[in-house]
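Minutes, project check-in
Item: structure for the 210-residue chain
Input as provided by the requester:
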Amino acid sequence: MTDLTNSLADLAERIKESHAAFLAAQRMTADKALETGRLLCRAKDECKHGEWLPLLDRAGVGERWAQHLMKIARAGIKSETVTALGGIKATLKVLADFRLPTHDEVLVVSVDNFDQASNEPMAILWPSSDHRGFYHFASIDSRDDGVEVHFLGKPTRAAPILMSNGEFVSGVWLAIEQFAKGKFATFDMQIVPADVAAEYQELVQEAMAA
C-alpha cells in the first residue's frame, strides 16, 4: 500500500466524510421520494372527480412530478435501489425501459453490462405457463467446475401488492434486487426471444427437476 503525504491523507479523510454524507443524503432523498409517492397514491385513490389538481396545488406538488413519484412508488422498488440506480431520474429511465417478457420471450438480467469476459452470474425471468401473471426467476453462475443455478421455488407475481402500511411490494423487483445485490452501476436488462435463451432455460429446468 502506497503511503500518502500528510496533506493527501487529510484530504482522503475529508473526501471519505463528505462522500458518506452525500450517500446518506441520497438515501434520505430516495426514502422521502418513495414516502411522498405512496402518500400521493393514497390521495389519488381517495380523491373524487375534480379534487386531484386542487389537492396537488395545496400540497405544492406539480402534476408531472407527482406522476413520477407515484410511478416509482407503485413499481415496488426499494429506496436502496433508487439510490443505487443513481436517483429519481435514473430510476424513471429504468422503469420507462422495463417491461415483462411475453410467452415467447425471456428477460435476461446482468450486473456487468453483459460483459462476456466477466465472471458475474446472470439471471433470467420468464412467464409461467401454468399461472398467468406470474413469472419464474433464476440466476445462472458459470464456474470453472460447472454451472450453479439458483431459482425461486415458486413463480412470483408480477403485479405489485399494496401492503397495509401503504408500501407496494413487487415480487419481480424483489427477485431482481436480491440478485443484483446493489450492483446497479453496471446493471442492464434485455428482452430476448425464448429460443435465444433456450440454453439458459434448459439449465434451469434441469436444476428444478433434480
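Outcome recorded: Residues 6-96 form one domain.
No further action items on this chain.
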